[in-house]
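Repro case for the chain-ordering regression, as requested:
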Amino acid sequence: MIEIDGLTKRYGDKTAVDGLSFVVEPGVVTGFLGPNGAGKSTTMRMIAGLDRPDSGTVRVNGKHYPQAPAPMAELGILLDARSVHPGLSARANLLALARTAGIGRRRVDEVIELAGLGEVAGTRAGGFSLGMGQRLGVAAALLGQPQTVVLDEPVNGLDPDGVRWIRLLLKSLATEGHTVLVSSHLMSEMAQTATQLVVLGRGKLITEASVEDFTGRATGTGVLVRTPEPVRLGQLLAAPGITVINDGTDTLRVSGTTAEQIGTAAWRAHLPVFELTPTHASLEEAFMQVTRDSIEYHAGATR
Amino acid sequence: MSAITRPGLAPAQGAPAPAPMTPAPATVAGPVTQVRVVRAEWTKLRALRSTRWSALTAIVLIVGLGAIIAGSGTPYKISGSNTAAVGISTALLGVLFAQLVVGMVGVLAFSGEYGTGMIRATLAVVPSRLPVLWAKVIVLAGLVLPVSMLCVFLDYFTAAAIESSRGGSAFSLTDPGVLRTVVGSSLYLTVVVIIGLALGALLRKTAAGLSVFAAVFFVIPIIVAVLPHKITGFASYLPTNVGGALWGDPQTTAHALSPWTGFACLCGYAIVLTALAAWQLRRRDA
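-- result from build under test --
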């Protein structure tokens, strides 16, 4: 479990993280979302005790991490920037970390196999591709079989096989009872992996919700109704809290009610319905809507 | 690359995965101890190619230069102010060059980790941080002391053999000050690596660490040697000079401090710099 309370971090006069509070529960994969510069990586560095918060607290599995007697049993972390020595082999990099916790060579070889680095374990990490570097970083995070795993952009640079590996890995970690916090900019991937979400914008918490609730709240979630009587059905459905959009064709977009209620109402009024399709906003659409106001760096000519 | 078939942390033949929300799954990670961090730092140091190259370079510089000096010019005769100790410290001239290699190894031990980003991995697994600094002090001193001791004794025996074969005086380790000069040069290099380490930790950048180190240990001593003494009084307290008091540093003739006071002063510099590095390591973001 990760408990973050009132966390604030300033670099010079820029506030990277601003009064952030949220909890990451064990047993589920929690996605950590936010535009570039929202403060995700800074928060992750503070979780690992690498950056000192200006105020607020972070507790990992109920403890103040820098004072944990066996840190590698508590937290495994993959940071956004590379954190391996290019002059050391993958195995030496992992072994150096393992030694600090009395972890033996067998476990090192185990995570090397787990990460699919068996063939390159003896080569210097400096020659690794982005994807190989990521695999090495994930291997390092898993080394101590930590209770809590924090991964910043783990699928960055991975091939499809690697992306799938990360997805299955995270889910199985959660099932085993670990706490899993993972950030990614690939929304489709996140939608498949995470069940809980923490969304940041400009260093502040925007929302903490399940993926289902988060996408359910976004516009674009509703029911598509195709009928030869769009006007009459529209009038019939109109009620407070229900939005009906009639674009002049035979199709209505209805939000605020369910397909069951629309179908029943149409049947009672003897109005024919040819098609009745619940639609969902994608995680990407929901994310864009929620973070529109807090995007730090807009692309130049998109709007 | 082979396909990955087995996600999860548990080994393949492990027990079935526990139900969700099971408290604290089994872990292989034990507590961090100073001894374990020392082993971790030793793992890094011995696996780095630069360590081997530096050791080799130091041996060649010290023993090679010593042999060249002993084998050239007029054979050394012990008499008056030309003591046995002065003759041996002259043969140890290579120490002045080897100190640059040793200092570089010290600087890189920290700046190399900051430069590559490995420091984040290192400090994430040892979040109390200070054991990392102490471990680096221990492994570097533990490497430099025996290697440099080997170098300077090889240098002594080589130089002594060459001198006597050319008709120079016979040297003995029991001659006044000779053993102190030989052992002292190795102790000097051992403290130098700690000073380099502290500079690397304080400055974090390899270029900055190496520049400051080279300035203090190489450039400034040469400059002050050619300037009038009035404005270079401080030179007596340069680390090369106070350390030179112990092993004879052929570059400097007059040492302000007695051998062991000078060495204590050198250790003082190392302790102050290491203490500053420790304070900063605790305080600053990684």
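Ordering looks correct now. Chain A has a mean pLDDT of 91.
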